[in-house]
Amino acid sequence: MMELYCERSQLKDGHTVLDVGCGWGSLSLYIAQKYSACKVTGICNSVTQKAHIEEQCRELQLRNLEIIVADISIFEMEGSYDRILSIEMFEHMKNYGDLLKKISRWMKDVNDDDWITRYFFSGGTMPSVNLLLYFQDDVSVVDHWLVSGKHYAQTSGDWLKRMDENKSSIKPIMESTYGKDSAVKWTVYWRTFFLSVAELFGYNNGEEWMVAHFLFKKK
Ligand SMILES: C[S@@+](CC[C@H](N)C(=O)[O-])C[C@H]1O[C@@H](n2cnc3c(N)ncnc32)[C@H](O)[C@@H]1O
């Protein structure tokens, strides 16, 4: 999947890359490792995520990846990147217009600049996709791809299976994260989340709720 993001965003070795909402760093680490001449910057809103990624960088001896901890909705910086990628972060956002304006300011001012995002949406009425397409004041969509919901359904089903198979090692993590009194409740919440995603995205053979990739160009 990581290579697919790189292909679809036409990323090349030597590019400066911004990964907005980098999470635990799966994409940033992949790019920094595979494209060693790229200079990668990841933005996340968690010091734990930053610490984890930096630990990985030390183990892998990577010197081309930097992590910024910030709330993207208020974060400002002077920056200019060849490629900006954002995987599964827009679900957490509310003001698409402002965020796209900000991101467009960070895109280099040349014609082939673009970025890609993955976004979940309902294939029936496609409300989320319509929303993203609506905000094209600062960027315009140049390409998009649909991915069957069956893949995410299977992933979520596997997460559920692994959680159930590892109940005893997960219990202390739930207790330290949510407190002893709430650990069972949160275990149920997580199981419900995995079950709902598996059912929703698997519905109608994966053609009702899907995943979309967009390629945008700076206007
Ligand atoms: C669903 S995860 C996706 C992580 C990663 N892009 C991936 O594909 O594995 C969403 C991530 O977006 C980031 N995020 C969410 N809200 C954010 C905010 N307000 N500011 C910065 N990052 C945020 C966090 O790093 C969070 O882990």
UniProtKB/TrEMBL annotation:
Classification via SUPFAM superfamilies: S-adenosyl-L-methionine-dependent methyltransferases
Q: Which InterPro entries match?
A: SAM-dependent_MTases_sf (IPR029063)
Note one Pfam family from the annotation: CMAS
What UniProt keywords are attached to this protein's entry? Methyltransferase, S-adenosyl-L-methionine, Transferase
Give GO MF terms, alphabetically: methyltransferase activity
State the family it belongs to: Belongs to the CFA/CMAS family.
The protein's name in its UniProt record: (S)-coclaurine N-methyltransferase
